[in-house]
Amino acid sequence: xxxASAHPKRINSQLMVLAWLAMAAAAAAAAVTLFFPDLxxxxxxKPSSYWIRHLRSSQPLKRQRxxxxxxxxxxxxxxxxxxxxxxxxxxxxxxxxxxxxxxxVDTASAVQAVGRTLHDRMPYVRLEAAYALKRLGAASAPxxxxxxxxxxxxxxxxxxxxxxxxxxxxxxxxxxxxLIGAIRSGDDDLAMPAAQIMARIGRGATDQxxxxxxxxxxxxxxxxxxxxxxxxxxxxxAVGGLIRALADEDPSIRVHAARAxxxxxxxxxxxxxxxxERLKDPTDDTRxxxxxxxxxxxxxxxxxxxxxxxxxxSQSDLAAHAATYALMRTGPxxxxxxxxxxxxxxxxxxxxxxxxxxxxxxxxxxxxxxxRKIAQDEDDPIRLWAAISLLRLGEDPSELIPIFVAGLSHxxxxxxxGAIDALKTIGTAARDAAPALKELIERESxxxxxxxxxxxxxxxxxxxAREVRPSNETGPVGNGPPVMPRSTQETANAGGEKE
Length: 499
Prior knowledge:
mainly alpha
């Protein structure tokens, strides 16, 4: 009896031990899961839930590994990642949106969720959202409203705004209506970047042409400039509206329209009659821009006659140059017109014609006798320009060097600069001009011209150049005026002389 009663007690004890062992094993498993989760997946793949947990890790390296792993999982984990976009702390949202950007999302709701993250309170989360939407390219269209709003992001870094702009450009035509709305918003900080993006989309905005055309009156000027750039990139379909803009009462609109037609080029030949009519515009800037446009769009017989009349009657150096430049580009008829202008009573028209004939080549051979006659007349104010054209046309430089030496004392900065450039073209054969170049360097107040003269002097007579300044210094010996270095000479314009 005693043995029988002891048997159940042993069984109970064994059961208690087994229960205790089971509890210990469960506790150990829980501890491993809690403190050493990686041990649970030794030798087998980790599920997506494992990597989602790692996105919440405070350790950047773990988060980065999770992003890479989830990227490989693809679309299957997108819903889980979208849910994390509302979680704290911020690095969880940043990691989730980065993973979404790498995976790519193919549903409008997911794209919109990423778009909303563009307005996160943390700048680096907004930055990750902007990167993600840029990676999506045209597929980011469902986030259009958020991308438009991001153009005015207040973060000091421009990265978010630039990335949003890139995404909008990649969306292309579908983004144009939203961009037009931003341009019309009255918010300059929004309108300016929106107009620039629309210009980058260019031809892709063609379907919205009727809506874009009225924007040419939009302020500020930077917006207006971008609108006209858009029209020029649209090209042929926009020519009709640009022709109408040539007659606008606002001179700046007329100038913009002419520039846009210039950019379109021969595809805007339908605008030639309107451009010719506008050569009579009351403002010099408009007439000049119209002439430049004709130079690139093309001309007819009426245009050539009108350009000659404009050059003859112009009171503006800019307008005279534009008219003669257009003639120079129009072929044989334009070349003959430039020869005719050599006899003009308008000083600037004669000067420009003489200077440009050297670029007409074939037609200008007929002008050589007239150019020689002008160059030989010491009292003719355009003899220097005639000599420069003769040099370009291959005439004997030895006969022209004295004219260029005299040109170093020309009253206008552009004259002195032209003479220096001619001596540079001649090279060492112009060594006799070295003393005159040295004198110019010592008296010249325009640093750009001094720089040009010194470099030519170094080329044609290094010995005299060393008298002006040591070869290892940037300034002249003594108290002479300094010479601007090469890197800055283009921006220097001392003295305010006519160039």
